[in-house]
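Quick one - inputs below.
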Amino acid sequence: MKLDMPVAEGATRLPALLEARGLTRRYGGLVAVSDLTFEIRPGEILGLIGPNGAGKSTTFNLLSGHVKPSAGTLSFAGESIAGMPPYQVSRRGLVRTFQHDSFFREMTVIENLTVAAQRRYRSHRERVDCARCIAERVGLDKHLDATAGSLPHGLQRILSIGIAITPEPKLLGLDEPLTGLHTVEVEKVLTLFRTLCRADAMTILLVDHNMKAMMGVCDRFLVLHYGKMLAQGNADEVRSNPDVIRAYLGISE
Amino acid sequence: MFNINHSVVLWNVALFAAAIVWLGVSEPSYLTQLVVWSAINAVLAAGMRFVLLIGETNMASGAIYGFAAYVTAIAVTNGFDVVPLVVVTAAIAAGVLGLLFGWVTLRVKGPYFMLIGFAFTEVVRLAYTRIDYVGGNSGMVGIYAPMSLDRWMPALCVGICYLLVSGFFVAEKSSFGLLMRAIRNNDKVVETLGVSALRVKLVCFCMAALAVGAAGAIHAYSYHVISPGDFSFLIPVYALAYAKVGGERHIVGSVIGAIFLTVVAQVVQGAGALQYVLFGGVIILTMLGVRGGLLDMLGWVACRRRRAGAQRIGLPKDRTSGELG
Amino acid sequence: MVTAMALIVQLALNTLQAGSVYVLFALGLTLIFGVMGVVNFAHGQFFTLGALLTSVLVPALREAFGMGVALAFTFASAISIVAVLALAAVVYQFGFRHYLRDTVGSFILSVGLLLFLEGVFLWVFGGVPRVVPNIAPGELRVFGAAIELQRLVVFGIAVIITVLLYLMLAFTRFGRAIRATAEDAGAATLQGIRDKRTLLYGFMVGSFLSAASGCLTAPIAVITPAVGNDYLIKGFITIIIGGLGSVPGAIFGGLTIALIESVVGYYVDGTMATIGMFCVVALLLLIRPQGMLGHVQH
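Output:
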């Protein structure tokens, strides 16, 4: 059982889980992100926001190893992960989802989650049991034999999250998990986040465009603009930051 | 997914035993040869299908199959006559070749992987024609099992093939099989789970190479004569045809397809140029006809009879009829 | 005694001439893949048909109408190409149309087609090797190297066709439609019927290129029903080097393999040249899995 620590207190005591310094990515002449310096603290839900083209996807991909940095350092749990291939970054405890289809479309829900348990257990039986367990936790236990592709979008997102939490990640990165969902489905997913964070003290990095939802669930924000860090802080700090307001109206909604 | 259907296992064992006994007691004849050839082709088909599970078309199987056949020929010509040992050695040699090839090429996917495999098969075939030690263009002859074993060779060959196909089936149903299918669906997500997709693909490919290698050894022992022309791109092409024509959905489809097309090939054997026409024609007709191959055709037939039966009794029709296991 | 200069010029000439035909063939293959998502294994059979028909019709036309070789060749090629286009239309309509974007399915279908057509050609034309008489007797000497005039003609025609193809793709409405379909099949489908016809015409243009390279090969090589298979392997190697769906890639790849073939063919022999090509490709895959100019695969 994980301790139910209040986040703010815990965050200042423990060392940062992920540290980025001067993180830069260039594509020929184009600079996608430049000189990003930030950290992600254990147990917090961090929101990465910014207008389209601000470099959110690139930053995300830099952290997960899908894109290699042109400059800067990146360390996770004290270890440098810059330039590591994605599967090795995942092994260190940083698991991410993808914006589209972050699951196995032609396989059933139970098969999806059994695959997710691949590295956590050695025997097939244990993996299947783990899969059932995760399905129950995320609320998919009534759909075990449904093909993932036949599920409604909201449940597919939940399945993606279920797959991502199975390896018990230290840092869970969710790439636009709320896109295309109804309000009801959004609520379901948000409740799941809160449960994961509070009950398991899981650290979550969230990228999404649904500002209302983000404001409601994130502890802290990183605001990007044209590839640069514009501001960092909690919801109030960010909402009242003049640079942020100037950069794009509508953030305070 | 995890349940063992006991009746299926029992039927399999019974069938297997019956086949082995029949092959053992019968005099070697055209029919027993046909059974052996069908068995070899079933392994090729199952091997092709196994790699299809990771979403790749393995056109290099011709080179791997031929390599094992040549290793067997060399071993036999040099006096090694412990058949199981030779088969195992040839299989391992094939596995190593598969490992080397796969390590370089599995970094690319889809059509690229298919084309490079095709090129590999053809280039290796060309290489054989230039190496005098293996007889160049004329190939090698006199690949026989020791006399004492001669009577049992068909049974041994079919037995090995049967075990190989069963091996593919077991692997497919295991966690590793799930992992393979997951890679076919979405390899990026598999990597986020800490699994190296390249490594899984490589293991899958090598497993197929080992089995295809064993089949290659059996080929050498069964045909007694081999030459470079036997191992052209047509080997993987036929393997793919067996698997698709039979029905890709289940491994039994590969076996059915292999048996069916082996028989067809024999039927059109003497027709010269027309044998290509007929064989090609059969493939085209199947591809344009029923997508799911023979399995679906048989299923459709079985389903209609079930429906007709249900209609007579007045039961509601099965909504999912037409879906096979 | 062969001077270094003469050798280099000779190899360069051989490369350009052989390469121009490889390029045409590969362009057809890559175009069909780019537009339809289909790897057409029977592409070599269209080549063979073009070559076979030309090699049969040239003597026939000469005898029937007393034409000169060059004229007979022109007519024979034209007729062969029309025949291949007709076959391509049938093959598309009844076959590939149902297997668009299905790489494996279309591949098996094309394999069945390859076997079927190979058998038909063997049956109809027999295995007799055929030769077309020299369509432009004489040779050109430059810097001590020599090239047959007819090879120069073949090279010239191949280049013209390539340039026309490029212009068509870049500047005509049809060319734009083809590029749109190749870029994003999904978006192109939204345009409905026009897309289906684009696919058919794209396939026919690709097959035209295959047939044209076959016709052009007839005068300079010995033609048997198996001639297409050799081109098929080289075509595939070209595409891997250049990248599937890339026009400049096909050109680059075609010239590269022609170069390897000329150089290795000169110092060793043709078989080693093919093996050499393959090794180059394998090396390339280790370094740049998407081919020299191809796009990164999704």
